[in-house]
User: Fold these one by one.
Assistant:
Number 1:
Amino acid sequence: MTTPAAVAPRISERARRMPSSPIRRLMPLAEAARARGVRVYHLNIGQPDIETPACMREKLAKAERVLAYSPSGGTPEYVASLSAYYRKLGFDLGPDELLATTGGSEAVLFAMFACTEDGDEAIVVEPFYTNYNSFAGLAGVTLRPVRATGENGFHLPPESEFEAALSPRSRLVLLCNPNNPTGTVYTREEVERVGAFCRRHGLFLVSDEVYREFVYDGREATSALSLPDSDDFVIVVDSLSKRYSACGIRLGCLATRNRDVHAAALRMAQGRLSPPGLAQLVALGANEVGPDYARGVQVEYQKRRDVLFEGLGRIPGVFLAKPEGAFYFVARLPVKDADDFAAWLLSDFSHEGATVMVAPASGFYATPGLGRDEVRIAYVLNVDDLRAAVKVLAAALPRYRQERGL
Amino acid sequence: MTTPAAVAPRISERARRMPSSPIRRLMPLAEAARARGVRVYHLNIGQPDIETPACMREKLAKAERVLAYSPSGGTPEYVASLSAYYRKLGFDLGPDELLATTGGSEAVLFAMFACTEDGDEAIVVEPFYTNYNSFAGLAGVTLRPVRATGENGFHLPPESEFEAALSPRSRLVLLCNPNNPTGTVYTREEVERVGAFCRRHGLFLVSDEVYREFVYDGREATSALSLPDSDDFVIVVDSLSKRYSACGIRLGCLATRNRDVHAAALRMAQGRLSPPGLAQLVALGANEVGPDYARGVQVEYQKRRDVLFEGLGRIPGVFLAKPEGAFYFVARLPVKDADDFAAWLLSDFSHEGATVMVAPASGFYATPGLGRDEVRIAYVLNVDDLRAAVKVLAAALPRYRQERGL
């Protein structure tokens, strides 16, 4: 074999631009802290500690002897269970309006590719779920942010800002409701306003509603499916991950009454053959999960939110509006560089043998420079651990400010 | 809410272009045949009937009570099991060279996006695995085919054809070895020739080796990882689907020693959070699967191949070279339009209460008009069913030719 000298091939620019996880840089620091014997409270991740319902896990005993492909759009049984779930919410969605996806992630991916060409734009409220960057990056789509602020509880900015973000290449608005990372639950009026904006400008509304059940103080999440004219422009991203504390099974769905979008997503789904089969088996148990489960989870998370909201609110210089849903919020801290603070917490600080890992918020913004003094906090730990984490942060902030001369 | 009249948004051209499954049109015909009481032998799909090893399925009993996210690149245990598997093949691949993917499909997707920009080109031997069209479509990549022919056992065409397919936008060669749909096992010399071609022109070699264990008559599959200069341009796509008859779990991997490609694929993997967790649990049982399993599967498939090869070879006008690997082959039939023949088999014909479903080969070609008289046959049925299927085809072909005036 002759192999004349040649330039080694290089990866693509779009692969180069693909963002790495904003907390990845912190992971080795957390491991080092643990290695020093420091207990690390993880407020940085959205992995719930709640058990996956036993009636779901038990379905695994029924796995076939051949773990075979399922239909690309999902097993009829799984799709029927989705239909039943949506019927309880008041939405009548049939098998041609529901498509099984590999987590909510794949539903975002399918929606993005179904709605856009390379070079198109999507409008998104920032701060936003950082992985939208990844899907936009793959699709060659530029995210045009409209800014929400903590003072306003991260509710929607005025219509004029949406208008200002429009361009001839705008194809969709991507809304996460209830919101990750801010915990904001948009009101019905807000959802209607976004819907009317999309309608007026011929945009798709991609509504990521995976935290639908996680709403507090008697709130209700408004699904974009409830918009009276939603048939041809609304695409809902859904997932079993948070609803049933089953993040690892990777199962979700795309729900839309737009037949072209559904057909396009199904063609993409055929390309990857099928969604995870064991996950679809587990999902069948969801039919047996009673309303008590969701209520119990809601009560537990509301308690956790209260512990953190009250605890952090008492720390001088910390600002956060009361979170309304999901299990995250974005807090402003009396620091100049939350990345530095997050690293310092892991590397240079401990309080009574413990420290805290938080997610710096800059990765949740598209506008450079924003979120530098903010962190995303996830409350997926039990109440005692959250109280301990608050103590750590209360001790850490004055010390950090002193060390950095703030 | 005011909703002034607006044009409803339309799906993207790239979504419109996304091909639908080539056998999808035939599915309702197969269902109708079954409804008429006709037994349908499925030679159209690659879903093995072999049991997933019990030692793998049994791992499901160890599922945790919280079905949590796994690391984006795979659990350390799964990645270690991949390492161990590759070590047995003679390749030393560490955790920075292996990445867990959601089936081999996602590995193709990651490789495609890591290597190309929208508008780039990939060279592929046709006929090829039809779902490459889907991943290329998402990535905006044009597949440039070089043609293999049945007379040559679908082995590689001369170098000059690869040269002719080159353009300034060529970024990679996508090779499936052993080949789906042709069953061809490329010789070491052929793999080296493709490697040298890639090397000379600065292209990546994406080598889809998911049928590695399915080789007959004492052949060995040559992994592109064995190319002596493979470190910076070889990307291997792998999957547990066929190896352990576990298609439905959706677990595979991307293997490459190119650090940039690995890092880019990991960033894409972080975007979708994690590969299926239950699948990774099942995969741990693969460590306990002895060499007897692969040998037994190989013996069984070789027997099946022989039954089909001999049986079909005796039907006048049918041409196929002896298949060397995988569990497919492409056969030429004495028909003008295999799509029409496949539909006719399901709608207008039965022999002793049975008929056969085959995959028309035109969907496996990029060049319009090619493969019109060919079908892909999968031999994933037991030997008795295959013999019965041969009888059906032997009775069907003269009848079809007569009816169509051929």
Number 2:
Amino acid sequence: MNILITNDDGWGAPGIRMLVEEMKKIGHVIVLAPDGARSGFSNAVTATQPITLRKVDHDDRDIEVYVTSGTPSDCIKLAINVVFKGDVSQIDLVVSGVNHGSNAAVNSIYSGTIGACLVAAEHQIPAIGFSIYDNSHEADLTYMRPYLASLTRHLLDEGIRPGTCYNINAPVGEIKGMKWTRQCKSHWEKEMKETPLENGEVGYMLSGYMVNDEPEATDTDEWALSHGYISIQPCSPDMTYYAAL
Amino acid sequence: MNILITNDDGWGAPGIRMLVEEMKKIGHVIVLAPDGARSGFSNAVTATQPITLRKVDHDDRDIEVYVTSGTPSDCIKLAINVVFKGDVSQIDLVVSGVNHGSNAAVNSIYSGTIGACLVAAEHQIPAIGFSIYDNSHEADLTYMRPYLASLTRHLLDEGIRPGTCYNINAPVGEIKGMKWTRQCKSHWEKEMKETPLENGEVGYMLSGYMVNDEPEATDTDEWALSHGYISIQPCSPDMTYYAAL
């Protein structure tokens, strides 16, 4: 079983290192990740310039590691087209993360972690994105560790519907269990903070906080996470809003 | 009525200039667009460095124009937080485009044009993205022109459901009518073309073609566009795959 691992925090991030160790328990791991942080890259692709692809030495000879100057979405495209020479059937699973920072609620539309999963789903490759509900760079990822392989095995055993990926977020602190959830309606406020630029002009830095627009709902990812449950949410690259159609 | 206009091809692109002229017929136009091309930027935001915001002189004094070093999604966030000082209620409509190149089928997940609309929908602002089904830089946009104001008026009169945006694509050539559509299942192939880098190493350039995975279906955007119809598709920032949930 070939498991392709990527993320949006880059190959140097602790989350992906932990994910690699856990996924080794399930199958043969191939890593193809950005060479640095690509937070907030969503499904961005590099359309106007060439990107690099470089094989990296790794202590564990069982693991193949590649890094690219591209985005998380580019990573999946490079893996399919270059590493696997267009033979999508050789990639049994894509796992993305572990992201430090929530990809729940409206954050999922901005997430490079989930973006990579959507590209996998475009190609009918089962995909799972793991994130933790803690935006701090010193976020403690270890308490999610026991769930990575077991949740992945569970979803694989249940059978991942083609074209589906799973957006999995873990709460901070004690984990009470897991919930299937829908995306919570929410929006960001006070997002642009004035910042002086090098040339003396006023620039703007992304900032702010997310507001839950349906705090009473108990079937959302935000509810699950704020009540100590892991949130498991199916997503797909089909953007149609069927309820409105 | 305040209409905020943006795009992912930059303020210099012919599509946005045409859109401004047509939207002037409906309301007061404020443009906030990237300072250059941002194709394939999806919902990417600039998370790690400040962005610029500069007011631009325009011959037509009735129109306010701002450009930024940020992404299409950043444009909506700057408009809300800086130009309108956080008062979302002052933006009655966001219109994005006219994009040269299809944002139908799976392309919509990669689209900066649609990304901007999803940010508007996050904030309950009605939004419409216009694109034409022609990837050439010399694409003739003029035949879409008569539909821009009339379609916008029609959707506003019908009432745009809060949290919804519309992804509108026009076919190439004679327009037979309009269809409400769902997103066609599709995927890209042969996307990474070997390209020599300046340092002599092998790099990869985004390339390839999209394959329709359900060519028999007659309710999709791809069907409408390939049969001469304008495709109108509701989208939302809710990524939950309800059919799988």
